[in-house]
């Protein structure tokens, strides 16, 4: 295929990367203008996607690709941070070269206020000042000392914010894990909003504030629209390069998908979800799990199970136990939604044998709920009872319900098995489930899983 390398590169670009490049382009050559316009359309309007003109000199495609990547590298906050760490190491080990010192001096002279990694940059410059002083090298002392003096107060404040951010993150993520808002999270909301609106704060702290506000919105839906407005406003800073990195963009897409899904805007959420799985990075499985859940909501279980099965080799190698166990549960659910119950059962039992400890520690509720649903579909009632007893699922559920408001699904599964085995009547089983649904729906305005309600209803109809 002609232009294969360029086409693969163009297809890999994200919409906000193309928008950033568009702001930087000053092309004079008609061919380059034509190529870039076609690239824009292909990326931003996939329905109008068309081939690149093969009559144009291949060298122009190559030059354009190199130009685009060099510009993205220049604005990339991750590359910038790596470079700062490199300088810091070279300074501390007394191995920094003259060329590297000139590069660092250039960064200081051209510093852009409130940079994403301002804290790290300030610390590197301060270390460099000490490096010069102990060597009685005063040539650039005034420039560097002025920088340290001018940004000292900003640095102190950003460090204080960063330190407080640690505690706010612990409080909010704990509530998010329990899916229940508490005063521990609520007390941070006003502070986080002020941080996000603060034009004098470094980019990293501001983005962390947005992430934490997102967590809060996902458990307290009254904040969803407000947080979505923050994401809309954030677009401008993504496009001007202030917050650009490939990893950050994927995170932005993934988080925006979750907010939109919570607002039941599944079609729009799917657009961002697809973008979030563009790279197989550190958080790829987490983004993929969310994207496939969205596909299930839109009635596309075949596509979801295909994507998850393709990702199995990647999931096997990942070190993040929480995301891996979440992946296991997601693939089981996709098998169930595709009526592939035997596949779900065999996969569940295989993964339980391999990762029992991790599943119990990180994701027991979702895993066993999906696994037991599979067994109930297969009418393996004695196996359901054994699993509930072996893993103390009723006791675990009772403990979880003290902090997490939901329905006692494991209790219902056990009651269903008792009904199937003739230990309780149909009316006793149905009435107990109905009473708990009425109580929790009235008190907390929640409703049970549609899938589980259908499973229970079908199981009652299909008598043994």
Short summary:
With 464 residues, this protein is mainly α.
Task: State the order of secondary-structure elements, H for helix, E for strand.
Answer: HHHHHHHHHHHHHHHHHHHHHHHHHH
Tell me the total number of β-strands. Answer: 0
Helix content: over 70%
Q: Which term fits the overall shape? A: globular
Low-pLDDT stretches: none
Give a verbal description of the structure.
The protein has 464 residues and is an all-alpha fold. It has 26 helices and no strands. It has helices at 4-12, 15-24, 30-44, 58-75, 77-92, 98-109, 118-134, 141-150, 152-178, 183-186, 189-197, 203-219, 224-239, 246-262, 266-276, 284-297, 301-310, 312-317, 321-337, 341-362, 364-377, 381-390, 393-401, 409-420, 426-444, 450-461. The longest helix is centred in the middle third of the chain and has 27 residues, at 152-178. The protein is globular, with a radius of gyration of 27 Å. The N and C termini lie far apart (60 Å).
Q: How is this fold's topology laid out?
A:
Blueprint: H1 4-12, H2 15-24, H3 30-44, H4 58-75, H5 77-92, H6 98-109, H7 118-134, H8 141-150, H9 152-178, H10 183-186, H11 189-197, H12 203-219, H13 224-239, H14 246-262, H15 266-276, H16 284-297, H17 301-310, H18 312-317, H19 321-337, H20 341-362, H21 364-377, H22 381-390, H23 393-401, H24 409-420, H25 426-444, H26 450-461
Key attributes of the depicted protein:
464 residues, globular, 26 helices
């Amino acid at each position: 295929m002609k232009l294969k390398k360029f086409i693969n590169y163009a297809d890999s670009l994200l919409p906000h990367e193309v928008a950033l490049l568009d702001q930087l382009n000053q092309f004079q050559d008609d061919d380059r203008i034509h190529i870039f316009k076609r690239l824009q359309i292909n990326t931003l309007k996939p329905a109008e996607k068309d081939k690149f003109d093969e009559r144009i000199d291949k060298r122009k495609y190559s030059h354009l690709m190199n130009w685009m990547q060099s510009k993205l590298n220049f604005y990339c906050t991750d590359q910038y941070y790596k470079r700062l760490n490199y300088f810091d190491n070279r300074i501390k080990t007394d191995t920094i070269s003259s060329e590297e010192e000139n590069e660092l001096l250039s960064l200081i002279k051209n510093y852009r206020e409130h940079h994403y990694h301002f804290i790290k940059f300030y610390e590197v410059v301060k270390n460099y000042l000490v490096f010069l002083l102990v060597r009685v090298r005063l040539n650039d002392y005034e420039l560097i000392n002025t920088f340290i003096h001018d940004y000292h107060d900003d640095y102190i404040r950003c460090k204080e914010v960063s330190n407080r951010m640690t505690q706010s993150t612990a409080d909010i993520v704990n509530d998010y894990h329990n899916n229940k808002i508490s005063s521990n999270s609520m007390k941070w909301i006003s502070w986080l909003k002020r941080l996000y609106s603060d034009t004098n704060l470094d980019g990293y702290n501001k983005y962390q504030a947005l992430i934490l506000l997102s967590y809060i919105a996902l458990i307290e839906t009254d904040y969803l629209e407000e947080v979505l407005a923050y994401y809309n406003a954030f677009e401008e800073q993504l496009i001007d390069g202030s917050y650009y990195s490939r990893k950050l963009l994927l995170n932005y897409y993934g988080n925006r998908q979750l907010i939109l899904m919570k607002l039941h805007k599944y079609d729009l959420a799917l657009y961002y979800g697809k973008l979030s799985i563009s790279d197989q990075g550190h958080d790829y499985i987490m983004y993929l799990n969310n994207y496939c859940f969205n596909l299930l909501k839109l009635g596309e279980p075949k596509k979801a199970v295909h994507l998850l099965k393709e990702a199995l080799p990647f999931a096997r190698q990942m070190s993040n136990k929480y995301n891996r166990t979440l992946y296991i549960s997601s693939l089981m659910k996709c098998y169930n939604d595709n009526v592939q119950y035997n596949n779900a059962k065999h996969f569940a039992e295989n993964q339980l044998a391999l990762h029992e400890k991790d599943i119990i520690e990180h994701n027991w509720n979702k895993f066993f709920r999906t696994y037991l649903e599979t067994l109930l579909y297969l009418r393996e009632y004695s196996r359901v009872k054994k699993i509930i007893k072996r893993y103390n699922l009723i006791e675990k559920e009772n403990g979880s319900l003290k902090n997490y408001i939901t329905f006692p699904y494991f209790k219902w599964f056990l009651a269903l098995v008792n009904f199937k085995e003739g230990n309780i009547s149909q009316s006793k089983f149905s009435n107990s489930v109905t009473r708990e649904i009425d109580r929790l729906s009235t008190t907390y305005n929640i409703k049970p899983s549609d899938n589980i309600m259908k499973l229970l209803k079908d199981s009652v109809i299909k008598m043994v």
